[in-house]
Amino acid sequence: MKTYGQYVSEDFEVHGNPFDFENDAPKPAIPNAATHKQIMYIVSLATKRGYDVRAMVAETDESGEIVLNASGECSPKITKKAASASIEKLRDPRSEIDAPKIDVKPVEKIELEDGMYRFNDRIFKVQHAVHGSGRQYAKELTQYDDGSWGFEIARGMIFKLRPEHKMTLEEAKEFGALYGTCCVCGRTLTNEASIEAGIGPICASKF
Ligand SMILES: [Zn+2]
After folding, report:
1. N or C: which end of the chain has fewer CB within 10 A?
2. How far is the centre of ligand 1, averaged over its atoms, from the C-alpha of 134 (Å)?
């Protein structure tokens, strides 16, 4: 028979102590690992020369971005010594670099219909800028501290939203019924018919 305490301490040895926040500190994957500063310097020097060395010098995610831990540090894949050598090489404009070239793919922008979208339980309004660029952008329906609702610019969301995220009138009505607010304009539903419908008549006509 083991006591609860024994189970816990043995588990911690195997899986790590979940309450040990030190675990979030940078863990050098290799002995004498390069510092975060060195890695970032290498990446910036290489980028200036048109090379993508991120995956060669640090842990990256599937999109190729360097993974940072909670303290904003990366997990180096090379030693301090190797990092110094790389830095020296990269700083010499005549040196030859054996690394993949930077892939400059423009972010794919899918044409969306203006309107209301739902993505990960967040609601967005997609519209075209009236003045200036005329570009399409997204705003997020946001609840403020006083309980009122409004729209805040949601940078980058226009690239994440897809036609299949478009809200149906039924979904807009469900939101209105739940929050007493019209999700299209953010106004509190006051008119009896609108409260019943979960949306104002003008906003409903936009679906
Ligand atoms: Zn409305």
Report:
1. N
2. 23
Cα–Cα distance for residue pair 41/32, rounded to 1 Å: 17
Question: Under a CB-based contact definition with an 8 Å cutoff, are residues 161 and 124 in contact?
Answer: yes
Domain boundaries, the chain: 4-90, 115-204
Q: How far, in Å, is the centroid of ligand 1 from the Cα of 160?
A: 25
Helix axes 80-91, 36-48, angle to 10 degrees: 30
**Nearest to 64, CA basis, from 105, 33, 108:** 105
Which residue in this structure is represented by tokens 């024994």?
6
- pLDDT tens-place string over residues 32-86: 999 999 999 999 999 999 999 999 999 998 778 898 888 889 999 999 999 999 9
Three-state DSSP class for residue 178: helix
pLDDT tens for each residue of 98-113: 999 987 766 666 789 9
152: β partners: 140
- Taking the centre of ligand 1 as the mean of its atom positions, its distance from the CA of residue 167, in whole angstroms, is 14
